[in-house]
# Entry
Amino acid sequence: MPFFYVMNKFSVSFLSGDVNMSIPVINLASLDGSDGFRIQNLDEYGSGVQVSNAGDLNGDGFGDIVVGSPGSGQFDYFNGSAYVVFGKASGFEPTFDVRRLDGSNGFHFKGDLDGSTGASISGGGDINGDGYDDLIVGAPLGGENYHYPEGASYVVFGKASGFSGLIEGEQLNGTDGFVLEGASIGDLAGRVSNAGDVNGDGLDDVIVGAPRADPNGDNSGSSYVVFGKTSGFDARINLANLDGNNGFRLDGATASDSSGSVVGSADDVNGDGFDDVSISAPGADANGIDSGSNYVVFGKASGFSATFDLSDLDGSNGFRLDGKTGNDQSIIRFGLVNKAGDINGDGIGDVIVGAYRSDSNGNKFRESYVVFGKTSGFDAILDLSSLNGMNGFRLDGSGGFGRSVSGAGDVNGDGTDDLIIGAPSADSNGGAAGSSYVIFGRTSGFDAAINVTDLELGEGVRLDGAGARDVSGSSVSGAGDVNGDGFDDLMVNTYLHSFGGGYTGAAYVIFGSDKMTGMNVISGTDRDDVLTGTDADDRFEAGDGNDVLIGGGGQDIFQAGNGDDVIQVADTNFYVASGGLGDNTLK
# Structure
């Protein structure tokens, strides 16, 4: 039902009539090259499992993307590969075949035999300080020991040109990239991410998770932060050799925590100018068996020891987030953490955590949590039940909601970062077609709990898998600005979609746009503006100043902002009018 809501000088009125104000839905099968495209022919079962922003590897100003295909291999499954596709301004076809990669449009990366290369992938930022972003590819089953793999991770340096169509990890020599070797047999060190600039030296750092490491009991897990530097990389670097000057190790608290199962950057969540890191320990038992814990460790300029126990976080050096107790503790699985960008626009990075097996509310909804950054006042343990909309909020959904979570950048161009969350077993377009939800950031505040099925027009968009059993959304990511139009783009996988008879999966790139709101966005400035709408559904975002907003009909949303504003409606079909602070007039 359309309604008229006024924040200040207007009175409150409600208007009758039926209206559909649900969020737009994009079927991934409909992408035609102008609004996005599909990446296919990834080779063998389980390909396309992981998707990620790769940064700008070739320095052309367009965002590049990477798809991890850990199940690929010509003769054996689980050799694995990663495929990098370079961004460009135009000329995208509806589908892109990775067999066309030739070095000029991207490249194919291969790691160790049976290494599951591409099971974890990430843009690396600029690790060696040459002005080009770098690539990180994890191979958790890689290394010298076949039966008890120590794991391996590969860093490929970006450059302006001269990429081969095929790059092999074993040929990296220190000048074009390097290999990070797991410290001990059985560690499975190969969960990778850019770490941001943890020590504030102007160079990006790397974080590698080894969930089967045993520093504090079997499978307590470790994570390794490797500092960037401008030169002097060996071809192979063993993670056991980090000494506090070149990086450091973060150890899981107790046996079976599997700390390091997911690692990432938390941006600068405490606003001190140093980037922070996030580590998931899904096997931790703080609130029941496998309730899971997540850790945020603050960066600093110096004073790193070679090793640090995550149990020593006290609020001043980082904090812990514990999974909530549910009706059946055995099925709670909490522990997918990622940076959210700045979703509330306060200038401080935020964190998003997925709890895709949680049922703590007893309603079969799965949960994700957004925790807002702040400059001080962190406790050693943050109670997620205390999130109230001011310090963060909870998102509820179904269909494996929260299986993958990521910051999305600014997809709709409103100046605030957005989120993307996968629900891979959702039945939106046939059984287990999968869906992904984009939740738009905003500065006007969030409720303490939001069910994604209740999102309204202008609050987000849903991306549906192309068909049944696609399992779309088991990996989601922001993509950067792939086509250079000023809007950040998105990546979503389809794990099991069949092309040519095999379950090779696919990856989709969805271009950002202000049309993602489902409305025409008419933006003002901080000066006195006159904004005129159309007969379609318009969203007025006037900003400050004494503005005049003139509707042309349709289910319009008027957000006048601060100042003495005039809102002129064409009829009673408008949805919302918000006057903001000031002496406002409705006509």
Q: What stands out?
A: Residues 25-368+384-517 form a domain with the Methylamine Dehydrogenase; Chain H fold (CATH 2.130.10.130).
